[in-house]
Amino acid sequence: MPIPHDLPKRIAPLVLCALAVAACTSAGDPELVDAPPTTQAPTTTLAPTDLVVLITNDDGVESPGLDALAAELAEQPDTIVHIVVPAEDQSGVGDRQSEGAAATTPGETVAGIEATIIDGTPGDAVAYAVRKLDPAPNLVLAGPNGGQNIGIFAEQSATLGAGKVGARLGVPGLAVNVGAPAPFDYDQGVEIMLDWVAENRDALIDKSADPAVTLINVPNCENADGGEFRGLIEVPLAESFGERDPFETNCIDETDALTDDVDAFLAGYAPLTVISVDENLEAN
Which of 113, 217, 224, 259 places its Cα 20 to 30 Å from the Cα of 237? Predict the structure, then answer.
């Protein structure tokens, strides 16, 4: 049954049992889970307005962005939230997945919200959640993570990589990074994520949304140069940095030269890029 609408119970309990041949482990003990090629049949009956969200990241369970997003989503009506995150920092692993089984352990975030810790990559976390959890997610939210993944950085982004794995399994995703310098503005990232979810909620629930990944990088204008955040703009990923310094944000001077995500980010915009996955590549 869907979890009642309050914070301690809104985050879906993730007590993990192996299928058929194995019994559930004792509380706190790791369990080895082989991700099968197909998704298990759901047993939970959802209301027509329910949105099931998976939150993951590449920074691990202690990320401030994780708690900030989970707490806000828990207050959203008709929203069921699962949290599955790597046991250790997995920055830079892209969409890589582990071979064989991945150990999972019940845990909690810094704020005490229930989560599942997986001894693997963000891609492993997404594949596990889509194939094993009930109810299965119809949206993957990766982040908000600290540090911009613009231009050629995006290829190695594990935040984006988590979304790619979900998209290959038919689940749309949103990957959000908040830019340097520290301290990172996680609240700004969460606000943008919530707005995006609200805008796309109906399509996610009725499954008319394309299984693609939306990548957003949010500049930290206040800490960078005291300028103001200019808002979202949809642009393609840059193929190279050229002569541009990907850490020189200028949120003060106006510019019309916004040809790609690097231009937009450095000018104080949050570049939004929709990335389709290779349909010939399947998640492990």
Answer: 224
